[in-house]
Design a protein that fits this description.
homotetramer; alpha/beta; 15 helices; about 40% helix; about 20% strand
C-alpha cells in the first residue's frame, strides 16, 4: 500500500542515520548540553541571522506547541488560532490541558489575518473573558497554504499594537521554504516572530523539532518548562545530531524541494484528470475533490485521509508527499485515475 | 574526561542503530500503529507473561511518569512516593503541574515500605486533604537499592487494602533484573503492579521507555493522554524498533549485566581502597564516601555527581556505569585512588 | 441611576436577612454540616422529588460550573456548550483553567439542540481530539430563552446514546420556573439531568447556588472537589439558611414571577413603542433593538448592557429585571421612550 | 454542646447584619465596584498606611490562598511553607491543583524561619527542580504562635536576597493584632509583605477575607484571576459592607481581643489544673495535653479537635475561642476539669 497519508511514513534522511552511527560511542553530557546540540544551535542561529535567539530541541510538534504556549501565557491568557489550526483540532486539548483557552477564528484557506486577530482581541475587552496574548500560525497551514511576507508583517504589526506574542508552527517548514511562491525565509521568521519551530519529524528527521525563540525575555526559564513537561531528552544529542545534518548548507530546504516536486507532479496529474481542489496549495499537501466511487476504489491500494465532504457525491481528500516519496509511485497512482 | 555521571552518555546499543538503518525506508503507519511497534508489544507481553497488558512507548522517564500519574488520578487524588523518589526531586514539579500532590515519605535507603504507605494513607483521613490513590516506586531506587519480592508483595497487599494503584518506575530496570540478589522478574512486576515501565534510555536505547499497564481498566483512554501530553511520536516506530531489539531473547538483561559487572569491579576497588558507602547498592549506581580532597582531585579527570555531604570533610558521590562503560577505564580510575 | 443591567444590584429578599439575624448566635458545625444546611437539602430533594440527589451549596455561578465540570471530566474530556454559553464567554476561561476544552457550537437563540450535540460528538471521532463527555445548558439561556420539555428529553436521549453527562446551569432558574410557557419543573430537571443548579444570587439570595446532583456516581468525592477549588465556606450555614428561606413553599418561584412581571410590563411597553427584539425571551432578560441615538440618551439615566450591533444605526441592548425591580421605575423608563 | 472546635461556629458580629439590612435595597454595581466595597478598600489602605495597595475581597481562606499563589507563580515555580502550613495540610491540594508544588519545611512551633527559607532555596539549584518563588506564612500560625517583627524582617531580607515573594495568611489576624506580645501591625505587614490577607470568616464576618497586595506589579491582572477561579461574587458588596464594619476604628482588633480574653481565661484555668501545652500560644488557639480518659469524658459535652498523640496515654487537643465565646461557658468548662 502506498502512503499518501502523511509525511512521516518512513524513517530518516539517510545521512542522519549515518551521523548517529558515526557518533554513537562518543561520551557526552546529557540534556542537550553536548557539542552536537551546541553546534546545531549555532547553525540554526546562523541560518536565522539571529545570533541572540534561544534554540531548544523537542521531540514532536504537539509537545513543542504546548511547551511554548504554556510557557508564554499567564493563567488567564489565551492563544488565538485559525479554527483549522493544529492546536484547535488535533492535539487532544493539549493547550487547554495546560490551562489556556485557544480562541478559534474562522481562517481563510487555513490562515489567520491581521484583521481576524484584531477582531479576536476586540471581542475580549475585559476581565470576564480571557485575555488574548499569543497568536498561533502554522506555516504552511494545515491546508498547505502559505503566508506571504506582507501578510506576516501585517500580523506582526497587529501583534505589536495589542502586545501579543507571535508564534509560528513550522511542522512542514521545509516545504514552505522550498515553495516557488515563498518569500518568507528563516531570517524573516526570526525577525517577525517571537518564537517559531523548524519541523524535523515531517521533514526528514527520525523525530525532533527545533524551537527558535528570538524574543530573549520569552526564552527565560524555558529549560524549566521543558523538564516539567517531560520534553527534555536525557540523550539530548539525538536531536542535536539530527539538526546538525539538516541545517548543514541547504539540506533542509532540499528535502522540502523533493517533497514539493513530488507534489507538483501529483497536482499536475490530478489537474489533467480534471480534479478541482478544495484549496490551492503550493506545498506538499494537496486537497483534490474526488467522486465517492473513485475514492472507494483508490482506498484499495492507497492510504490517505478524507478531509471533508464537499457535496453529496464528492469529498475532498488529503494527499501528502515527502522527501521519501518516489516518482514512480506517483506516476503509477496517476495512471490509475480515470482519463 | 570519563563519564561516571550517568548511564546516558553514549548513543545506543549498536544493533539498535542497525535495525533503524535496516528498516529506514519501509513505509508504515504512524503513532505506534506500525508492525514493529506491534511486534515489540508482543515481545514485551510474552516476557511479562501477561498477554492482556496494554503496552505504550514513550520518549523519556519524566514524560512516562507524568502521563501515567495524570491519567490514573482524579483531580483531588495524590501519589505517595519516597522523598528521594524521582517525581519528588528531579522532575521540576511535573506531577504537580498536572494538578496532583506527591506525598513524600521518608524512604529507607531510597525505598518505600508497606508501613510507610499505610502511614501516609492514615494521615489523610478526610476531604480537607488530598486522597492518596497511587504508590510510586523506583526499582532500582534512586539510591540503587532493590525491592525484594516479599517487600513488593507486602506493598501490593497494602495497596489492595486501601484501593491504591501501584506504579513502578523502571528507568534502570535492566540493572535490577541482572543483579545477583534480584528475585523480581518481569512476570512478577506484571502480576503485582498496576503499571510499570521498562526503561530504555538508561539501558541501551537511543531514547524510549516501554510502559506496561496490566490493569486493563487503568489502560482505558490512555492514547488520549499520550496525545494530550505531547508524548505520542508521529514516527512511533522509532520506539517500536528499538524495543524489538531490546526485548529479543535476554538482550535487555544482558545490557544490565554488563553495567552491573562494571559496577562490581568499581565497588570492589573502592572497598579495597577503604571507602565506606552511603548505602549498599547491588546495581549500577554506587555511592562511595570520599574525602573532599580526593573528590577535588578526581573531578579533574572524571565527571560525576556529588550526592550529599556526610561530615565536614567527606561527601558521598555517585558513580554510574552502563552497558557502554569500558573495563579499562574503570581499572585506570581505580589505579588513581590512594593505596 | 436605574439598574437594568443585571439582577444582582440589590441585597437579598428581606426574609433571608431576617433568618440570618434570627439564627446568628446559634453555634453549629461548619462546612455545611449544620442543621440549616441539612434542612435546606431536604427541602430541595423534596421539591425535586429526588430523595437520592446529592445537594451542595456554593457561592456563585462560575464557581459552581467549574467545580462540577472539573469533577465530572477525565483530563482529556470536554464540555459541549452553545457559543453564547456562560462558560464559553464570561468566565475568563475558568473551564480551560481546570484543563478542559469547552466545545462551542453555534446555538439557536442561545440554545443547544440534540442535533448540534450529535454533530459535536461526531466531529470528535478519535484520540487526536478531545472526547466530548458533558453537555452544558443554561436554562434560561443567556438570551433569556427556555428549553421545552420535549427539547430537553431529546437532548437527554442523545446524551444517553453517546454516554454524555447532562448539566444545566440554572443561574436564573426562578425566572424559568415562573414563565408562562414553561413546562419544565424541578422534578423534570432532576429526572433528565445528571446535575443542575438552582440559582440563588440572581434570584433573591445574598449569594449562593444550590447544586443538585441526581446522578449518585457523579456525586462521589464531590466534597474533595469543593474544598480543593476553594468553594467550601467555613460558615456553610450562611448558604443553608438562605436556601431554607428560598425553598420554603413556592417562595423561589414567586421571586421569579415578580421579575417576570416587571419584564412583561417592560416588554409590552417596548413593543408598543415599536421596538423589535433580537430574540423572543419569555423570561426576565429582554433584548430590544434600539437606535443608537436613543441608546445614548437612555444611558444618561439608566445602566444597561449593549449586547451587539444589529445594523449600522441600531444595537440590541439587554435589560434585566429582578425580584427587586419596582413597577414605577419601569413605567417611568417607558415614559421616556419616543412615542 | 459547646464548640471549642473552631472560631466559625456562629454567624456574624451583629453590626455586620445590621449594615447588611440597612443597605439591602440600595442598587449598586456588581463585582465589588460598589461604593461600599470602595469605602472598605479605602479604610483598609488607611489602616495599612499603604495608599497604593490593591485590595480585593474573597469568600474564604483556601480560595484566597489559591488565587494569590496561582496568580503569583510561573508554571514551574513553587511556594515554600511550614509543614504545618494550611496550604500543605488542609486545603485538599488546592495549590497543586493550580499546578504548583508546595515545598514543606519542618516548621518551628508552626513557623518558618529565615534560615529554613534559605535552606529550601539552596536545595533547588537548577531546572531539574521547581524554582522556589514565594514564601507562605500564617500569622498566627496553625499552632497559634506569632512572628515577631524582627523575625518577619529577617524573612523579608532573605526573600529579597533570593527574589522571593512574601505572602502572609491572616485567617486569624485579629487575634494576632490583639495579642499582648504582638509587635506587628497592619502598616508593618503592608511594608514587609508583597501580599497578605485580613481574615474575616474567623474574626466576626459572615464570610470573607480582604486580600491586600502592596506590591503593585503582583497586583496586575488580579481581577482576571479572581473571575477565572470562581472567586468574584456578583453581589460583591456583601463583602465590602462587612469590611466597612470590621475596619471602622479598632473594631477588628477588639473582636480579636475578645477572643484572646476568652483564651486567656481558658489557658489560665488549664494551667492551674496542671495541664502542659504542646506549644505556647499567645492567641485564640490553645493546645493543652490531656490524658486520654479526660478527653473521652470532655467529648461528651464539648466539641474540639484532637491535634496529635504525645505519649501512649496523652494527646494534645485544640481549643479555639472567638468573639462569640461566652465567659460563663469557659468557666463552666474549667469547673469540669479534675482538681
Amino acid at each position: 500500500m502506498l502512503y499518501l497519508k502523511n509525511d512521516y511514513a518512513e524513517g530518516a534522511y539517510p545521512p542522519i542515520l549515518e551521523a548517529l552511527a558515526r557518533t554513537n560511542l562518543e561520551s557526552t553530557d546529557g540534556y542537550g548540553e553536548d557539542p552536537h546540540s551546541k553546534h546545531a544551535r549555532a547553525l540554526i542561529r546562523a541560518q536565522c541571522a539571529c545570533p541572540e535567539a534561544a534554540v531548544h530541541f523537542l521531540s514532536g510538534g504537539t509537545q513543542t506547541n504546548l511547551c511554548l504556549i504554556a510557557h508564554a501565557l499567564l493563567p488567564y491568557q489565551a492563544a488565538i488560532a485559525a479554527d483549522t489550526g493544529h492546536i484547535c483540532t488535533h492535539e487532544t486539548g493539549a493547550i487547554e490541558a495546560t490551562g489556556h483557552k485557544a480562541i478559534a477564528m474562522p481562517g481563510v484557506d487555513g490562515k489567520l489575518t491581521a484583521s481576524l486577530i484584531e477582531e479576536a482581541v476586540l471581542a475580549h475587552p475585559n476581565h470576564h473573558m480571557v485575555e488574548p496574548k499569543l497568536v498561533y500560525l502554522s506555516h504552511p497551514s494545515e491546508l498547505g497554504t502559505l503566508y506571504k511576507k506582507a501578510e506576516l508583517k501585517a500580523i506582526r504589526e497587529v501583534c505589536s499594537r495589542y502586545h501579543l506574542l507571535l508564534y509560528l508552527d513550522g511542522a512542514r517548514l521545509a516545504s514552505a521554504l522550498a515553495a516557488e511562491e515563498n518569500d518568507l525565509f528563516l531570517p524573516d521568521l526570526a525577525q517577525l516572530c517571537d518564537a517559531f519551530y523548524i519541523g524535523g519529524t515531517k521533514c526528514g528527521a527520525l523525530f525532533g523539532e527545533a524551537l527558535v525563540i528570538p524574543n530573549r525575555r520569552l526564552a527565560e526559564g524555558f529549560l524549566y518548562t521543558l523538564k516539567q513537561r517531560g520534553a527534555r531528552l536525557a540523550k539530548g544529542r539525538m536531536l542535536g545530531i539530527q539538526f546538525e545534518v539538516l541545517m548543514q548548507g541547504d539540506t533542509y530546504q532540499k528535502l522540502g524541494e523533493k517533497a514539493n516536486q513530488m507534489a507538483a507532479i501529483l497536482r499536475e496529474g490530478l489537474r489533467e484528470a480534471g480534479c478541482p481542489f478544495l484549496v490551492e496549495s503550493p506545498t506538499n499537501q494537496l486537497f483534490p475533490i474526488l467522486p465517492d466511487a473513485l475514492i472507494g476504489q483508490l482506498q484499495q491500494r492507497y492510504d490517505f485521509i478524507i478531509q471533508q465532504r464537499t457535496d453529496e457525491s464528492h469529498q475532498a481528500v488529503r494527499f501528502i508527499t515527502s522527501w521519501a516519496t518516489r516518482e514512480e509511485d506517483i506516476r503509477e497512482f496517476l495512471s490509475e485515475l480515470p482519463a
